[in-house]
Amino acid sequence: MNEAPDDRENEAVDESSFDTDEEDHREEVRGGGTSFIGDLLRFSLLSIIIVVPIRLFIASPFVVNGSSMDPTFHTGEYLIVDQLSYQFSEPERGDVVIFHFPQNPSQFFIKRVIGLPGETVVLEGNKVKIINTEHPNGFYLDQSFLTHKSPKEEEEIFKLREDEYVVLGDNRTASSDSRVWGTVDERLIVGRALLRLFPLSTVGYMPGDIDLQDQQQ
Are 131 and 114 in contact (CB under 8 A)? Predict the structure, then answer.
């Protein structure tokens, strides 16, 4: 007769214990959801902190439009532009650069650097003569990489200030470049072509890179 109350008491204790575990479990679920949202917000904030500065100051995408750099670049090719290097060094002859169009800075152009600050650049049809302090008598660039040459034969002379560049398209027959609208100020240069990501068959590092310093004649 004395055992029954003890059994009921044990059952009550067990039931109370079960209810407590279930409540704790519900609390854990609620805590897990809050933690997930917090992690998601932190991840999103971290992504913004990392991606936005990279996009603005280090590298940005650029899609080629037009035939001015044919056959080096074609319409629809997807490039990554290095915006950081020119913060520490100057553009070099032969670099493929992306810049704001001097006559409409909202537009972006892609061309090859031919003339550097302080130089005199003489265009003689398809020949390019460079006159600078190292070569006061001038030298001609070897442009054997060109496949589309200009039919123009008249001479053009550019005497560059210390912040100006002469840029030309590789397709000299269909390029609007320094021959048409003049020089490019250094402040307008966004960066150089660093990667070509699309089409996949043309993926490469420093696409179109030519060391014209080693191709002098």
Answer: no
